[in-house]
Amino acid sequence: MVVTCLLSSSLAVSLADSRRLAAAGLPPDTPLSDRLALAFLAGAAVAVSMTWRRRWPLWVTMGAAAAALLFPLDVLGLLIGLTHVVARLRGRAVWAGGLAAGLGTTASVWRDAHGHAPGTSFWGDVFVGSSASGATSTALSWWAQGLIVVVLVALSVGAGLFLRTRRDLQATRAEQRTDRDAVGRLSEEMGRQAERERIAREVHDVLGHRLSLLSLHAGALEVAAGEDPRVRHSASLVREGAQQSMDDLRSLLSVLRDPSQSESVHPTPSLAELPRVIEESMSGGMQVQSTVYLDGAARASHQLARAVYRIVQEMLTNARKHAPGAPVRLRVEGDDRHGIRIEAANYLVAQSGSVRPGQERHGTDAPPHGRGAGLAGIAERAAQLDGESRHGVDALGVFRVEVWLPWTGGVQSLGEDKEVTRAG
Question: Residue 389's closest CA among 315, 324, 287, 328?
Fold first, then answer.
């Protein structure tokens, strides 16, 4: 673009010099006048200004129009500037650019039309030329000059409108793609929300009814226990457990219906609550030998605390489900340097013979009993924190589950560091 405008300006200066020599009767080797030398520099400046035609189109157009009014230059750069004014601007800026372009084009065409000899007028040579009788006049009438100005400005405005329409069309297509993506995501989210609502209703109707009946019968058993403290205590534990299960169920259903309420409705458990989980299992008659030692538990991140809490909870639940009545050995220890290691072991699982002693399993393989959803969940929680998990029966016939979690993403507590220590 710059080179083309520079060549066009050089042609215009050359024709202006030819008109000057013809009008004064000077020889062709006469040096270029100072005014035409300035005109050449002005044309070069207009050509270089095309570099900023997209960023400052109005100022480029104004500069090119001023150069065309002051010097005998062409209008190529001026018309290119007007094209980008129409394509990129709105309102008064377009009218100002159009007025400047019209004045500059009129001056340039009128000046060029004063060359009557062949080779002194670009538009005269294009539309008139030499006659068949050898006449040399190439003068243009006033209406021809006006027609040229109108056609040039109209072509520039039309090109600008074309560019504007194309840019608007591209923007509209981009918005349509964005809207389609948003509608697709919204439809998918609505589908998931409807499925969550359906699952929540089913869970509420089935489990809510059974837990309420369990709580009701446990209360009746507690009243009917009379003076027997053991039966009364067991019934009380069943009733409290059912009530707590109902509260947890309501919290989980709220999270299922609105996942954004996960933290407020179901807060992240703390590592300091691990002894309470063990005590609940022991109060239900489960034989648990536990050792919990966590150095600097208050600095653990929410993700780590939740993972440790749920893994310990799942280990004890699996032991109750797959090895009822068997003693369980549980050990939880760690710090911010070595991570957290969780180990659980019991003996009764190996009696089924489905797993030979010494056979070890990794990841989400199924356990000796059941479908293995609990161990799969443990492995997934460990993998989410870049940890490791394994389970299997050792050479002594003991089923073991071992998990290691790195201590990453810790958050410094505002209070003092605490140690969670328990042995029982």
Answer: 315
Read off the pLDDT of residues 105-144 as tens digits, 9 standing for 90 and up: 888 888 888 766 666 777 777 776 644 344 444 567 788 8
CATH superfamily of 269-423: Histidine kinase-like ATPase, C-terminal domain (3.30.565.10)
Other CB atoms closer than 10 Å to residue 195's CB: what's the count? 11
* Encoded tokens for 414: 């505002």
The full DSSP string for 123-162 is HHHHHT---TT--------HHHHHHHHHHHHHHHHHHHHH
pLDDT in tens, 55-98: 999 999 999 999 988 888 888 888 999 999 999 988 899 999 99
Q: What angle do CA 260, 297, 300 make, to 5 degrees?
A: 40
What Rg, from alpha-carbon coordinates, does the chain have? 44
pTM of the predicted protein model? 0.47
Between CA 286 and CA 188 the distance in angstroms is 45
